[in-house]
Specification:
Strand order of the largest sheet: 2-1-3-5-4
Oligomer: single chain
CATH topology: Collagenase (Catalytic Domain)
Number of helices: 3
CATH class: Alpha Beta
Largest sheet: 5 strands, mixed
Radius of gyration: 15 Å
Structural class: alpha/beta
CATH architecture: 3-Layer(aba) Sandwich
Helix content: 10-25%
Bound molecules: ligand TQI, calcium ion, zinc ion
Shape: globular
Order of helices and strands: EHEEEEEEHH
Strand content: 15-25%
């Protein structure tokens, strides 16, 4: 079953259309997988997502960061934490640059799109789920690919 962050932070009702941007220098092969993940969430919720080049004013900013990078949540080199995203309405979504990332299912790398689906769930206000098939279920392994589950969609619909 889905969960929310403490206090159930969420985007205001007036903000169903969110923009996302990649910070300069983001690896080009991440753009399509991340954009597909936003599209998948849009198809299953009332949210709309559009990409903007204006990373200063974007609602959501995506980048690859390494080690200590200034937001108080350090990355830890290969293994451990893979990515993080903050609760609404922060909009920060970071991948750990020290991991092996892949656009396609690859047993030796983490799947960019699957991780994005999970982190966007956090960006929208979901915590972790107790349902194994859910994208918000707190287990994820090298090479694994997953999609959205009814539980994830119900979670967003219950929050908004
Ligand atoms: N990153 C954690 C995550 O996204 C960061 C985190 C821990 C977090 N607790 C949180 C973010 C609470 C928001 C709210 O869950 S991770 C998993 C999972 C990670 C972990 O790199 O460790 C997945 C990334 F859920 F399996 F633990 C993706 Cl699916
Ligand atoms: Ca790491
Ligand atoms: Zn960060
Ligand atoms: Zn998580």
């Amino acid at each position: 079953h889905y969960s929310f962050f403490d206090g159930q932070p969420r985007w205001p009702a007036s903000k169903y259309s969110l923009t996302f941007a990649f910070l300069p220098g983001t690896r080009a092969d991440a753009i399509n997988p991340v954009s597909r993940a936003f599209q998948t969430w849009a198809e299953n919720t009332h949210f709309r997502f559009s990409r903007t080049e204006d990373y200063v004013n974007a609602d959501i900013r995506v980048s690859f960061e390494s080690g200590e990078h200034g937001d108080g949540s350090s990355f830890d080199g290969p293994g451990g934490t893979l990515a993080h995203a903050f609760a609404p309405t922060n909009g920060t979504f970071h991948y750990d640059a020290d991991e092996e990332w892949s656009v396609i299912a690859n047993p030796g790398a983490y799947h960019l799109e699957t991780l994005a689906l999970h982190e966007i769930g956090h960006l929208l206000g979901l915590g972790h789920s107790s349902i194994e098939g859910a994208i918000m279920y707190p287990t994820f392994s090298l090479g694994e690919t997953k999609g959205l589950h009814g539980d994830d969609i119900q979670g967003v619909n219950a929050l908004y």
